[in-house]
Please model this.
Amino acid sequence: MQAMMPGFSGAAIPTGSVRHGLFAARFRLLARLAAFVMIVAPVACSDADPIVVGVALGVESRGARLAYEDAMRNGLPIEIDTIFLQASDNRAAPAIQAAEQLVSIPQMVAVIGHSNSAASMAAAPIYNRHQIVQLAPHSTAVLYSEAGPYSYRMVSPDDRQGQFLATHLTAAGHGRRAALLYVNDDYGRSLRHELLSALTPGAIEWVIDAPHAENTDSASIARTVTVLAESKPQIIVWIGRGAQLTRIIPDIRKAVGNVPILAGDGVASATRTVETETMWDSVRYVDLVDLEVPELREFREHYRTRFGVEPTGPQVLAYDAMAAVLEAIRGGARTGADIRDYFDSFGRSRPVFPGIAGPVMFDQAGNVDRAYVLRYVPKARL
Amino acid sequence: MIEPVRPGRSSLRRRVLIGALITAALLVMSLGVLIELTSDMRGEVGAATNEYIEEQQIAGRLQRAVTRQLIAASFFGRSHREALIVEFRSAGDEAYQQIRQYLLLELTPEERLQLEAVKEQHAHLEVSAQEAFGLFARGHEDDARHAADAMVERSMTLQQALDGFLALRERDVISLRERQAYVFRYLYIAAAAFAVLLLGAVFLVTRFFNRRVGAPLAELVDAAGRIGRGDLDARVGIGQDDELATVAVSFNRMAARLAEGKVDLEQRNWQLREALETLRTMQTEIIQSEKLSAMGRMMAGLAHELNNPLASVLGYMELLSSHMDEHGQLDRDEIRRDYLQPVLAEALRARGLVRDFLQFSHQGAVGLTGIPLRDALYMVVRLRAYSFEQTGLTIVTEDDCAGQDMVLAQPQRLEQIFLNITNNAFDAMKARGHGSLRIRVGCDDDFITVTFEDDGAGFAQIDRVFEPFFSTKAVGAGTGLGLAIVHQYMEEFDGSVRAENRVEGGARVLLRLRRAPADFSPPAVEPDLPVSIPVNGGAQAAHNEQRRPRILVVEDEEPLRTLQKRFLTRLNAEVLLAADVAEAKRIVQETRLDLVISDVRMPGGKNGVDFYYWIEAEQPYLRDRFLFVTGDITDGEIAEFAERRPDRVVLKPFILKEYMALVRRTLATELTNQRID
Model:
């Protein structure tokens, strides 16, 4: 069984102190001990409710959906429900609301999400408090490693991506004058920090080192472009989301022409319009999955058949994330703690999990060691 | 092994154990709940306080960082120095880190959302500031001011968001405090309820124990007390618990058996009492028989002893008569020396024998007194010496006490003791025709020991010698009570007796008699008075000449009556004689007297004691001027009188000096009352 919940912009947010709620719950628990014995115990003897797995992603949730459907076709040992929340907003606040909504569902054992580092980190304390495994497909912020024992991700943290970007930035031969445009959130600050740390001092002359806000207004875009034009960068480093780049790229092209743009993985799931298609020619971005390898050909075909479009790296990772969770449940895990233990056993007491994007084995911080690829935006994505 | 009372009855021990376990469990659970609640609340309050302090510090650092950013931005508008941008970024990193710290705290969704708003506003502030920096640096003053204005607006929004977040946190603390008060209020109520429950439990437990244990035990104690007081019908109820019910059943069985035993015992007691009564009768008879047997043997000795002086008296008096017939003229000194003094000596010897016999035969009360041991011992020796001598036996005495031999005893019974032991020795040795009885008197601090050793065959069954009616003598030769009486009397004297066989042969009997205390002094020995009393001469003679004492002698025996008259005449007294009580009363009523000397036993139904009572009533002035003359002070009222007033009794046969001394002493007393005419 699967269900799709509506958007949570109008969802009610629980009020009151969590600590107080805990205490009150304990107090009520003691007061209702007899009721528990008389009512809950007989219920416990009945058949257990189905395990629920939540998904809080944007368009990446297609990968998770496909993995669930494939698992259903192959058969599952127990009944598993899935809850898919449309969480395409990259901001922390909607992620918190989504997380609160998910943890309120009984038998929720794991959540695939969220769609970026800021959202994942905002929601992580909630999942950890409820001992629900959080598996972020493509959140790369370094701080996510400290989110808690129930927080995992399918990629490496930004320190490796920063090194990857620095290597390509200095080796590309575009010149030393570079403009750094980063989104001023956890993702942008983290990757910027790792990039600057990875560069040899003086290797790059930063003509602009400017933050931008997610969903910024047009006046701000205009001011950024004005400065960008006067700075005459030889290359633009974009550490932000694809959607934002989609909005600003026409102005960039007007101001500085076809200057190469080197982008982080936030662009991997960007969508383009027909009007801006030529503006993306010189854009290269970091992807977390090399979709061109033969091993993914069958999956790409399968995905295209199911959804009519090519999969993106995050979608592949979402597929593997759902598959890993279902594998843990298939292996006997019935609670968040069970799944956590199961994840920790990959590559140790159990074989690594054979994801389609590569083998999955979580380190002590819940990260997967995964290689990056630098991709051009393919025409196929139009 | 006591069997359970009946199946299905519950065990008190099990009930108590279960009750104790339940109570302990409830107490532990209740205490656990209280401790859990209080510790949780205490922990939460402590943690909240610490968090609140930490958050205040974070908020302070965050505000300071933002302030630094605003200051740097403000100055950059005027000087466009690169250092201000560095400062701005540094402060921005600090602010970001503080916000990150917030996010790592445990927050409510509302707080988390509010903090995300702070974070978002701060990001916007930085974006606006960075835009302003770039524009200022490139001379776009107007655009830069727009960006700066936006930055200021963002800073205000940021401050509002931060205030909103802090307000939420403050609300948390207030809420926690209210909840704490709420919970503690319920804790107090719970504690009070717990105390009430505990008191109730204590009351129920106490009531339970009182009903199940206390009351049955009290009933048991009461029943035991009743049984102890002789009420063997006392029974207890059977309770509900195994242990006490078993005890109750056992107790009731015991009481029933006691009742049965009591009835049986009473029957046996009655039978024993009858047997004892019979036995006592027989014992009295046998004792009397033994006494008679001993007396018979003693009478033989007494007769012999009396015959000897009587023979001497008769012989001397016949010789005197022949001498007077033959010589006519008599030499007074020759008569006194050769005839009268031997007669007097023999008469006194006879008198001593009679008195000893009377004293021995007197059955006095068991009143212990201090007496000289030697008196009783030598009296018996004297009594039995003749028999021993006649049989070829000897009695040897040794006295190591040098006169310090006052013992606590009753005189007649002490004599009986010595006589019985002496008789046993005699019987043991007489068949042999030789042997001796050695009597040794020894002293120590508290006791005087008398050891009798004979040369007889010894005791045949030494362990039965004090057993009444046990005798190894020939049938009719003994009653078997001799040593039994010795044992009985020695116990009465608080002394002891031990019998044993000597190694060299013969028997040994050891007596241990307790010394008399110092206050038991022997009777004072009357000083000897001169036999011859001058009739005229001295002050007494002068007094007598003034008025001769008038003395009435009441005696039915004419020779004694005449003898006393002759004695009293020697006092220059006017002697009036009466042969019976009636005549004596007449004389008393008609004549004022100075002294009455009366026999006790007289014909006519009235004796001297009656006469004395008459004197006390009719002529009390003579109450202290009355002397009894009697041959037997062991019988009836005269014995009591003699014990009370020994100085008013003259024993027959008397000698002159004793008689005269007593008369003189009596005449010396004042007349207490006048004569009643």
